[in-house]
User: Fold this.
Amino acid sequence: MNDRDATLVIGATGTTGRRVTAGLLAEGHRVKAAGRSATPVEGARAVRFDWNDPSTWDEALDGVGRAYLVPPIGSSDPAAAMLPFLRRAGATGLRRAVLLSSSAIPAGGPAVGQVHRELPALVEQWAVLRPSWFMQNFTGDSPHARSIRESGVIRTATGDGRVGFVDAEDIAAVAVRALTDTRSPDTDLVLTGPQALSYDDVAAIISRATGRAVVHRHLTFEELRDRWAAEIPPEFAGMLAGMDRAIAAGAEDRTTDTVQRLTGRPPGTFRAFAEREVASRG
Assistant:
């Protein structure tokens, strides 16, 4: 691959990355599927990639003109690895980059917000996806999914605050458009579902979809922070609990038309998501 028509997808087997990869392949684009284990992905070229190992960067970037960037998981300072990578990528011919961030983190904010701030100066064409909380946070091996399975409880410090939960399928669909449309967005894009829901609402929807009673247990900021701190570094635990506190104050109580505007279809509802998940499990 030396003609730079390939798209690099970092985190190609992750929640959004595998969906972005599938969307690109479905439209006939060449994809380099990057991850620490270079896991084979049908239709794509798998390459080993580690944000913290610069020796993996050049092979990943060879022949690449566009990239989907998922920050290093769990890092409180992703800019330390991502900015040197982006400087090298720009020098080797990367034209467009689409960065996955969060609706809770503006340009210049903490963590990936530092990468967001610098991105326009590092690549010619760019977009920053700032999705609200993922609907997929209630599936798989996520903390909420585990607590639902084990005790029928969702624990947060969000109070009655509402969130415009968004389906990863919709995030990926926007990412594909941001990567491949002739005109680059060159802006940040806040992505939500069609409704802002409280966690009480979410518990009720999951209860109806599964036929099992699920309740939302309201914790204080300190209670949630201490629960997180038993599993992850204290500073990261405090940041996550702080996000819940911001939700309680109304920071995520919004919806946007971004999914509809970029993909031409409305975003999926939480009810449809929950029913789809139940159906997929037979």
